[in-house]
């Protein structure tokens, strides 16, 4: 435990992030849960356990993928159906005949990113631009991690449930699990919330972003979408992780890319020792699943040992891109230590 303290303090001192919260557990047994640093990089607002963090791309596995798998289990979504069955606005043509499953596994043909939303004159125009976007490669031939596919999955979920994705998440995931502090757009929530950790400073007239999604594409689209926008606490992420472990859905825990592509499950990275470069580090447990968020968040869990590693930081407060290499090393070192607690 002292080694995790030293690791976190070292990265705060070197400017990787101003604050962080780490929770390591084996199932329900919590081995370590601590908050470190100050939310705004000064000594004015110390971070305490239970603060709300912008999860960024952890939205993909924890909201979008969970909803997708739940709807598939009910027979409301066919994972192997063409996505156009649910989104007829998608550009026609054989090249675009990707399936829902290919979207979820990041092999639908989309480039890693595209500024379509920033260049649009309205939210409707942005969605039209995404629906009509040309693919970068033939579906099923590559694994290219892309926010674009999960934006489309969010739209599919909304069409099927006839609810905005935040309402679908609240009704189908949060309420059954007793989650009260895991939500989209927390500034719109009624009732008292814990402190919200800020992300990027000095990009708006009012100062840093706090309680608004940091991801610019998600923000342009209203903050309630399939690629980013979820906020939560370490405690509630632990609850979600326990639920995932208890349910053990093969779609979530088993590699779905069987054709030599980089391993993925629906929603998560899948750590296969034969494929180096996982965000948890190459020495972490084979068969573990996890995901990261651009803001400085991550969740990894191992179905065999029930190890759960949650790291929440506001890395982007320190530097939007300059701290990415240091954050990657922090995650590698953290998971190396955590698996031996």
UniProtKB/TrEMBL annotation:
InterPro entries (UniProt xref): Beta-lactam-related, Beta-lactam/transpept-like, Diverse_Enzym_Activities
Keyword Transcription regulation on entry: no
Domain annotation Beta-lactamase-related: ranges: 4-319
Superkingdom, taxonomy of origin: Bacteria
Keyword entries, A-Z: Hydrolase
The keyword Hydrolase appears for this protein: yes
UniProt cross-references to Pfam families, sorted A to Z: Beta-lactamase
GO molecular function, one term: hydrolase activity
SUPFAM superfamilies, sorted: beta-lactamase/transpeptidase-like
Designated name of the protein: CubicO group peptidase (Beta-lactamase class C family)
């Amino acid at each position: 435990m002292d080694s995790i303290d030293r690791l976190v303090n070292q990265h705060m001192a070197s400017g990787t992030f101003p604050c962080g919260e780490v929770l390591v557990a084996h199932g329900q047994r919590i081995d370590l849960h601590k908050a470190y640093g100050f939310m705004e990089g000064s000594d004015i607002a110390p971070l305490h356990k239970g603060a709300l963090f912008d999860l960024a791309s952890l939205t993909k596995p924890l909201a979008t993928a969970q909803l997708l798998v739940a709807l598939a289990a009910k027979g409301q979504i066919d994972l192997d159906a063409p996505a156009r069955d649910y989104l007829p606005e998608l550009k026609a043509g054989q090249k675009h005949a990707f399936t829902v499953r290919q979207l979820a596994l990041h092999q639908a043909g989309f480039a890693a990113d595209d500024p379509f939303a920033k260049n649009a004159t309205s939210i409707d125009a942005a969605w039209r631009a995404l629906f009509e976007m040309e693919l970068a490669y033939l579906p099923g031939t590559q694994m290219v991690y892309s926010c674009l596919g999960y934006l489309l999955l969010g739209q599919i979920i909304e069409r099927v449930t006839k609810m905005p994705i935040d309402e679908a998440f609240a009704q189908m995931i949060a309420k059954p699990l007793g989650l009260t502090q895991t939500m989209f757009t927390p500034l719109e929530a009624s009732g008292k919330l814990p402190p919200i950790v800020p992300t990027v400073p000095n990009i708006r007239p009012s100062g840093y972003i706090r309680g608004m999604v940091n991801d610019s594409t998600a923000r342009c689209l209203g903050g309630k979408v399939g690629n980013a926008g979820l906020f939560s606490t370490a405690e509630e992420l632990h609850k979600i992780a326990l639920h995932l472990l208890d349910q053990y859905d093969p779609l979530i825990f088993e590699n779905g890319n069987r054709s030599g592509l980089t391993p993925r499950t629906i929603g998560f990275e899948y750590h296969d020792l034969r494929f180096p470069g996982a965000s948890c580090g190459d020495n972490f447990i084979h068969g573990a699943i996890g995901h990261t968020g651009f803001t400085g968040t991550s969740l990894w869990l191992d179905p065999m040992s029930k190890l759960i590693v949650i790291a929440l930081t506001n890395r982007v407060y320190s530097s939007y891109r300059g701290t990415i290499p240091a954050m990657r090393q922090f995650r590698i070192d953290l998971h190396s230590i955590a698996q031996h607690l």
